[in-house]
TrEMBL record:
Stated name of the protein: Multiple C2 and transmembrane domain-containing protein 1
Native source organism of the sequence: Motacilla alba (White wagtail)
Pfam family, one: C2
SUPFAM superfamilies: C2 domain (Calcium/lipid-binding domain, CaLB)
Keywords: Calcium, Cytoplasmic vesicle, Endoplasmic reticulum, Endosome, Membrane, Metal-binding, Repeat, Synapse, Transmembrane, Transmembrane helix
GO cellular component, one term: synaptic vesicle membrane
Record-stated family: Belongs to the MCTP family.
PROSITE patterns, A to Z: C2
Length: 750
């Protein structure tokens, strides 16, 4: 559905630039897509296949009022502006309400036009889906604005932060389809020479090359649910909760067979808007083999909550029964920034001293959650995979950009078009909440009409980083099981407080909200079975070794074991248990330092990972043929559960082994300190006093802090130790010696 008739006076493919100012006014009589006879509508504008604007969501309203503005730069008036309206559904795919398009050639220049667009669905052309009301102004592009846009695009300043400016300046959010760039640009109203205007514009952009990405952190603690609706035949439910704030999503654990579940889980969200936002919360009942049942929903309006304060909320569930108990805290923004190489925090002596002071030993008990500081320089990549093939001569290229992730902090570089040897020269800084986190750097190829193509990835544990050293990392495949084409050059610096890092190790690990769903894989199931078999065989070997001592298969060994048994039993004290573990750690450390550790590298896991990667490639090709319904069978869900249980058991055994093998020296040293303390305490303090203190702490914990999150310090410690699979994934591959910087070849931009 278009507005007006085409104007033939516009020349086809007009090379001039135009600015389209669109005000999204309201909707009227929109189609109902929810069970309650309402919708939660929002609007998308698309130009040339790219989304250039997305409105806020108006909840439970068929006549929404938006009053939002968008500024779009147009370089081809023959390209219509598509308007699509959706119904927002949390946890599910959003429902399509209707679409229309605006014929830009029908608009008069420099004149505001009020437009009414009737929404249509191509599959149901006769249905009345409501209307959208817009006000649009089409104007020729200002040459000065074009100069600024050119400067910004050529220098890759593809995002500048919004902030107030004095009278005479104005801010535009611009999308340039020919450059595929979405940006916020500041223009200065000057009526002097163009050279002065350019100098002023560059100075403003220089001041803001270092920008802060989000404004705060929202910490949500899910305590419990009360009097929830019974969804199963036994009069109970298996409830779990989903949270969503913008694109950020979390899912709680499932509490089986209860109407009053206790979760006690914490989730952290990034807050991007100064005025806050709305957290959507839905409660579901888990059903094996069929679609989960909806129990109820509620929302938290963050704009109504004060910052730097913990709020206890009891949220009644809409469209259901019962309510949830939550703790919500809004805190100031973490120091997560992006800047050019010219803005380097660690090279600025004053900033470096402030950072070192913040994480000095004197600050060990100040803000325990702020463990350290991470700076990542993404310099360039070389010899990347060609994802696009164009032209008669099959010219191969890629449009690479880089994604840098640390837990739930996810930042992107700009895209370098038509280049297999891109240079980004960007600096990213992060707050470290857990020193055992893994930095993930992924390179993608941008595609205009579909999702980005994967080019390569590296995963770097923070504790393995060598500060200030520029290194070439060989890119790996999607599952980090083997090399792919290309290398990426990074320079990373980590500064952290060792005491805070040690204390944080004994706390629950942060959950990632961007995680792949569990899938059934024959190779993965076999791999987990073999890993568990290795752990069981190690126990059996130990039992057989002890039995051989009883059978006197080797008389000298049996005699030594017998004398050791008599000595230990006769002189046994409780402190000898941690002392024995301490001696085992010390012995393994001595073997490693002296070079006498001749244990063979276990290639079984590596071989299985390679086989799994081959199967993943086959699965990706076959998935389209099999369809989505095959995933819903109950037997598959049971197999996935068995697969995950095997993985957890095998990982538990491997983590214990890797602790004593000094796979992560920081954790092994921490274990030595803890075991030494336990040994001293058990030696000097009677056991009854230790048990008494432990029991009093357990019985009074809920009284002292009723909303404390339950955790086991030993399991939290082991969760930081990598399993054998993770050790293989984090292993740094050696660079091909034939690949050197002096032999680089550049692709000329097309």
């Amino acid at each position: 559905n278009s507005f007006g008739a085409s104007n033939a006076d516009f020349p086809p493919g007009d090379p001039g630039m135009y600015q389209l100012d669109v005000t999204l006014r309201r909707g009227q009589n929109l189609a109902a897509r929810d069970r309650g006879g309402t919708s939660d509508p929002y609007v998308k504008f698309k130009l040339g296949g790219k989304e250039v604007f997305r409105s806020k969501t108006v909840h439970k309203n068929l006549n929404p009022v938006w009053e939002e503005k968008a500024y779009i730069l147009i370089d081809n008036l023959r390209e219509p502006l598509y308007i699509k309206v959706f119904d927002y559904d949390f946890g599910l795919q959003d429902d399509f309400i209707g679409s229309a398009f605006l014929d830009l050639t029908s608009l008069e220049l420099n004149r505001q036009t009020d437009v009414t667009l009737s929404l249509k669905d191509p599959h149901y052309p006769d249905h009345d889906l409501g209307s959208i009301f817009l006000s649009v102004v089409l104007a020729p592009g200002d040459p000065r604005e074009a100069v600024i846009l050119s400067i910004l695009v050529n220098n890759n300043y593809d995002f500048l932060p919004s902030m107030p400016y004095r009278t005479g300046n104005f801010c535009h959010r611009i999308y340039c389809p020919s450059k595929c760039v979405l940006m916020t640009v500041f223009f200065v109203s000057l009526n002097k020479h163009l050279s002065i205007f350019q100098t002023q514009s560059l100075r403003l952009s220089d001041l803001h090359r270092k920008s802060q990405l989000w404004r705060g952190i929202v910490s949500v603690t899910l305590i419990e649910g009360r009097e929830l609706k019974a969804m199963d035949a036994n009069g109970l439910s298996d409830p779990y909760v989903k949270f969503r704030l913008g694109h950020q999503k979390y899912k709680s654990k499932i509490v089986p067979k209860t109407l009053n579940p206790q979760w006690r889980e914490q989730f952290d969200f990034h807050l991007y808007e100064e005025r806050g936002g709305i957290i959507d919360i839905t409660v579901w009942d888990k059903d094996v083999g069929k679609k989960d049942d909806f129990i109820g929903r509620c929302q938290i309006d963050l704009s109504t909550l004060s910052k730097e304060q913990t709020h206890k909320l009891e949220m009644p569930l809409e469209e259901g029964e019962g309510y949830l108990v939550l703790l919500v805290t809004l805190t100031a923004s973490a120091a997560v920034t992006i800047s050019d190489l010219s803005i380097n925090s660690l090279e600025d002596q004053k900033e470096r001293e402030e950072i070192l002071k913040r994480y000095s030993p004197m600050m060990m008990f100040h803000n325990i959650s702020d463990v350290g500081f991470l700076q990542v320089k993404v310099i360039r990549a070389e010899a990347l995979m060609a994802a696009d093939v164009t032209g008669k001569d099959s010219f191969s290229k890629s449009d690479p950009f880089c994604v840098v992730e640390l837990n739930n902090d996810r930042l992107l570089t700009h895209t370098v078009y038509r280049n297999l040897n891109p240079e980004w020269n960007k600096i990213f800084t992060f707050n470290i909440k857990d020193i055992h986190s893994v930095l993930e750097v992924t390179v993608y190829d941008e595609d205009r009409d579909r999702s980005a193509d994967f080019l390569g990835k590296v995963a770097i544990p923070l504790l393995s980083i060598q500060n200030g050293e520029q290194k070439a990392y060989v890119l790996k495949n999607k599952h980090l099981t083997g090399p792919t084409k290309g290398v990426i050059y990074l320079e990373i610096d980590v500064i952290f407080n060792a005491v805070k890092a040690s204390l944080r190790t004994l706390m629950p690990k942060e959950q990632k909200y961007i995680e792949e769903e569990d899938r059934l894989s024959k190779q993965l199931l076999l791999r987990n079975f073999m890993r568990m078999k290795h752990c069981v065989m190690a126990l059996i070997t130990a039992v057989c070794y002890i039995s051989s001592c009883f059978d006197w298969d080797s008389p000298p060994r049996s005699l030594a074991a017998f004398l050791l048994f008599l000595f230990v039993v006769w002189n046994f004290e409780l402190y000898m248990i941690p002392l024995a573990l301490l001696l085992l750690l010390a012995w393994n450390y001595f073997l490693i330092v002296s070079g006498k550790d001749n244990r063979q590298h276990d290639t079984v896991v590596e071989d299985m990972l390679e086989d799994e990667e081959e199967e993943d490639d086959r699965d990706d090709k076959d998935s389209e043929k099999k369809g989505f319904m095959n995933r819903l069978y109950a037997i598959q869900e049971v197999c996935v559960t068995v697969q995950n249980i095997l993985d957890e058991i095998a990982s538990f055994g491997e983590r214990i082994k890797n602790t004593f093998n000094w796979t992560v020296p920081f954790l092994s040293w921490l274990a030595i300190v803890a075991l030494s303390v336990f040994t001293i305490i058990l030696y000097f303090v009677p056991l009854r006093y230790i048990v008494l203190v432990w029991g009093i702490n357990k019985f009074t914990k809920k009284i002292r802090n009723p909303y404390a999150i339950d955790n086991n310090e030993l399991l939290d410690f082991l969760s930081r130790v990598p399993s054998d699979v993770q050790v293989m994934q984090y292993h740094e591959l050696k660079q091909d010696p034939t690949h050197s910087p002096s032999k680089r070849k550049r692709n000329n931009p097309a």
